[in-house]
Amino acid sequence: MQARSAPSSLPSSRYSRSSLYSIYTVLLKEYGMQGWWPLLAHQGMNPTKTGSITGYHPGDYSFPKNEQQRFEICIGAILTQNTSWVQVEKALKALNQLNALTIEGMAKLSLQRLKIAIKPAGYFNQKAKKIREFVVFFTYLDGRTPSREELLSVWGVGPETADSILLYAYHVPSFVVDAYTRRILSHLRLIEETASYNDIKAMMEQALPQEVVVYQEYHALLVEHAKQQYSKKPYSQDILLSRIHR
DNA sequence: AACCAGGACGTGA
DNA sequence: TCACGTCATGGT
């Protein structure tokens, strides 16, 4: 680790830290448990989630239940880069039809068929390459949990994808920062717009209990809240603003 | 008909 | 380090 200067762009007062936790409790009361990461098919799936047909499992944190589901989460994390989950779901279903949501099946799939299958998720040339790179890495892991640095060394895996894989596929408490997180926290003036990914991640992890369930739900709740209130500009008066004092 | 969607990478200051 | 262009399909 190299020495780093303190991020001047972040408020570090007690007020902002407690605000970050109260945001979580407010969102949880408002929207309920989110049941991420969505999986194609499993027992007890919940079909009533915004923007998706099936796959969520609120209150059940026992996923993934096997290596295949773990693999599916990883592939979904790559496919959802800058793409809505509805589109990713189409791609995942197409892959599943080809028996390519297993490591063995994916390894057999031709590049051309892979590209066609994931086309709905966009960037199919890049994402096909990313998936193939990840398959090599996943095989190399041989069931071991990767470190964040290992994940980041894989071509096509950036900070958010790495943290999503750690948090949802491996239950490692690593907070996921996405565009919605930055948008909401910035609008609430809890961060500067220019705050870096790692700055925001560090702030969240310092403010919250370092628990997988909290990180999973918080991230998913921010996404749900953003879909409700931050999809189109100008952003309206956030319901959180009147409720995060203390 | 622009604009956005659960980003990452390559490039040149 | 960082700002900017590129990648691509499909919703609203």
Give me the secondary-structure topology:
Layout: H1 14-31, H2 67-79, H3 85-97, H4 103-108, H5 111-118, H6 124-141, H7 148-152, H8 159-169, H9 179-187, H10 197-207, H11 212-229
This protein binds a DNA duplex (13 and 12 nucleotides) through residues 36, 51, 77-78, 80-88, 90, 119-127, 130, 155-161, 164, 176, 178-181, 219-220, 222-223, 226-227, 231-232.
Question: How does this structure look, described?
Answer:
With 246 residues, the protein is mainly α. It folds into two domains: 14-36 and 176-243, Endonuclease Iii, domain 2, CATH 1.10.1670; 67-169, Hypothetical protein, domain 2 (Endonuclease III, domain 1, Orthogonal Bundle), CATH 1.10.340. The chain has helices at 14-31, 67-79, 85-97, 103-108, 111-118, 124-141, 148-152, 159-169, 179-187, 197-207, 212-229. Helix 5 (111-118) crosses helix 6. The protein is globular. Residues 1-8 have low confidence and may be disordered. The chain binds a DNA duplex (13 and 12 nucleotides) through helix 3, helix 6, helix 8, helix 9 and helix 11.
